[in-house]
Structures are given as C-alpha cells and as structure tokens.
Design brief:
single chain; globular
Length: 97
C-alpha cells in the first residue's frame, strides 16, 4: 500500500516589499498566538553578521536569523515540525540567493 499524495499549496509567497509569507501546513500556536503563516522580512547582510558570533552552531545561527526575520522567539522556531521548518529554510534560501 502506498501513501496517497495530496496537492499542497506553495510553501511560501513573495510579497511586493521583499518579505516572504511562509504557509504552515496547519495552524500553530507560536509565542501564544495562533498562526497559519509566518512572514519573514527581507534579510540584511547585518542579520547574517549578527548571527555569527563565533559561539553558535550553523543550526543555531539559522534559528537566530529566522526568529529575527519573523519577530518570533527562537523557541517558537524550534518547536515547529520539520516540514514547516523546511518551508522556512526554503524561504530563507530564496531570499538569500
């Protein structure tokens, strides 16, 4: 028996101001607020410099950047299921490329 794939919406949408709206697979409570999407503002070079303090691992740097861009706590980002976190990673890669 094979798993049936269902059509999913795009993981994120680019906004006119350079931000990206990441569409979560289902509603999540993040920092006490129910959300179906996370908006990431457009990153600056300074966001990446600030994340690299010489003490954070690469994964910690990514969570630091995502939490700043989304205006969420790092714990809120850490609590996301990997499929939703992967959507944030795709959006960050898109904005950084």
């Amino acid at each position: 028996m094979t798993a049936k794939k269902t059509k999913t919406e795009e993981p994120f949408t680019e906004n006119p101001d350079g931000s990206v709206t990441v569409h979560l697979r289902s509603e999540r409570i993040l920092d006490g607020e129910a959300r179906k999407e996370i908006v990431l503002r457009e990153p600056t070079a300074g966001d990446f410099v600030d994340a690299d303090n010489g003490q954070r691992s690469q994964a910690q740097q990514e969570i630091f950047i995502l939490s700043n861009l989304a205006e969420l706590t790092p714990d809120a980002i850490r609590e996301l299921p990997m499929k939703d976190y992967g959507r944030l990673q795709l959006a960050l890669g898109f904005m950084s490329g």
